[in-house]
Structure formats: C-alpha cells, structure tokens
Amino acid sequence: MASYDVADSQAPYTVIVEYYEPGVKSASEVLATELETFELQGASSDEIAQTAVKVSDTYDAYRLDWVQSAEVPWSTEDTTEIDVDCSAIIFDGQDGYTYGVYTAGDSSNEASLAAVADVIDSIEVTQP
Hints:
By secondary structure, this protein is an alpha+beta fold. Helix content is 20%, strand content 38%. The protein has two helices and six strands; from the N terminus they run ββαββββα.
C-alpha cells in the first residue's frame, strides 16, 4: 500500500493505492470485503454509492463513493474531525494484479473535491 498526502492549503487531499498479487484477490472480492467492512462499521448501503465502471483494458472495475467523518487525513498534526468525500476505484489490472485507488477530499472545499475527482477520472490501464 502507498499513501500520498497533498497538504496544499488550497486543495488538500489523500490518495491511497493498494494492490494484490495475481491470484490473491479479484476486484469483486476486494469490493465484497470493502462493503462488509462498511457494514461492520455501521454504514448503511444507502450511504455508499456503488457503480460498475469501465477502466480501459480491465476485466472488472467498480466505483464506491461515500462521505465520512475523519481526522484530517492529509495531516499528521491536525486531529480535527472533518467530513471527507471519499471515492474508490477497484479493478483487475495487468498480469492478474488487482488494484484499489482510494481518495479523500475535504467536503467543504471545492478545489479539494475537484482534485480528487481528477485523480479518479485519470485512472487508465493499458496493456503492453
């Protein structure tokens, strides 16, 4: 897993990228695990938007969108709880790897939300 925190005061956001080795978990298995985790944390299915999406050159791809309260994710120093808009794209990629790209942006900051939307919209997989 890799986490990228952009602490830009104008457009702060966080991106987390996970990947699974070939054969470990498919995108549909990662999706099921995520939905189960949300349920265990008390989130209702009404609070999580789930969409099948198309990511070029992939087998399966899913998108999740939700809002949650969290300590400021892009700062290790600020423990204030804020609302963050979160999105995830989970997909089967090249050579059997499965990926999850998760974003979190400040719900009250349009520039932050635009930045995370750009990250999600830019996901593209190409086969060699």
